[in-house]
Amino acid sequence: MSIEVQPLTPAFGAEIKGVDLVSCSAAEFDGILEIFSEYGVVFFRDQQRLSETEHIDLASRFGEIHIHPAARGREDAYPGLLKMKTNKESTVAAGNRWHSDVSCDEFPPYASILQLHETPSSGGDTLFASLCAAYEALSDPMKTMLDGLSALHSGEEPFRHLFKFQNHQAGQGWPENDHPIVREHVSSGRPALFIDREFTKKINELPKDEGKALLEFLFGHTERVDFQCRFQWTPNAIAIWDNRCVLHHALWDYWPEQRTGSRVTTVGEKPVAWRLSDHSKVQKERSSIRLTA
């Protein structure tokens, strides 16, 4: 199998060619994982339509399967597989706001694996944005301001009111958790600006008005076009993205046509803050070692 990598932008997002994701060997998958870690989101066209078992098995190569809050407690053969369908009868489309999948969980997702089975004749693209690039582009005073701050991520409004999901866990509310605004992307050690318009509700350490104003700036900043790549879907194409450092936005511009697919997501680690003070300390230690040498 000859793997070809075609970057969508100089540093973020890539299409991988010459790969059959169902039959690829362990060594070939390790190569794919290395490319994925470098580019944050990768795309595969001309794949076979995955069965439920094949989709779960593919996702399992990235880690433990994540069960969506709306599926927890539900009796289902494949609780980790979400089926998606948007057509002319839909009142809301999944993913139609910038977000990181279920960032409100205590252990937010790592990799999301989405395959679209039916695509509209035009439209229905998905946008992706790099949270590492977004952090890097901030000014030094803004980075200092954000250092050590945390935010509340809540599923209450989108899950209960927007999507009107049924909670299968009796007596349970939707997940709410505090996460650092700047988290460490453990695969690379890079800082990522971990906020999103769908789930991030407030900055814990600031008064309400100040926090709201800062969040609005950060939302707009992460959604800038210079941090983005865009994927135009074809039937049975697969996208895999790293929710720890990537936002995505599914465009709903194809009404009344239909778009269907399925997604499986894997569990990530509990977010850990990336601190300027720790980074500065490491840099100073490296400089001291160089001077001593």
What would you say about this model in short?
By secondary structure, this protein is of the alpha+beta class. It is built from seven helices and 15 strands. It has helices spanning 26-39, 52-60, 131-136, 140-146, 156-162, 208-222, 276-292; strands spanning 4-7, 14-17, 41-44, 81-86, 109-118, 126-130, 150-154, 176-180, 182-185, 190-193, 200-203, 228-231, 238-242, 246-250, 259-267.
Describe the protein's architecture and organization.
The chain has 293 residues and is α+β, with helices and mostly antiparallel strands. 26% of the residues lie in helices and 27% in strands. Strand 2 (14-17), helix 1 (26-39) and strand 3 (41-44) form a beta-alpha-beta unit.
SSE topology:
Elements: E1 4-7, E2 14-17, H1 26-39, E3 41-44, H2 52-60, E4 81-86, E5 109-118, E6 126-130, H3 131-136, H4 140-146, E7 150-154, H5 156-162, E8 176-180, E9 182-185, E10 190-193, E11 200-203, H6 208-222, E12 228-231, E13 238-242, E14 246-250, E15 259-267, H7 276-292
Parallel strand pairs: 2-3
Antiparallel strand pairs: 1-2, 3-13, 4-15, 5-13, 5-15, 6-12, 6-14, 7-8, 7-11, 9-10
Keywords:
15 strands; 293 residues; 7 helices; alpha+beta; 3-stranded antiparallel beta sheet; globular; 7-stranded mixed beta sheet
Radius of gyration: 20 Å
Spans of at least 5 consecutive residues with low confidence: none
Query: What's the number of helices?
Result: 7
Mean pLDDT comes to: 91
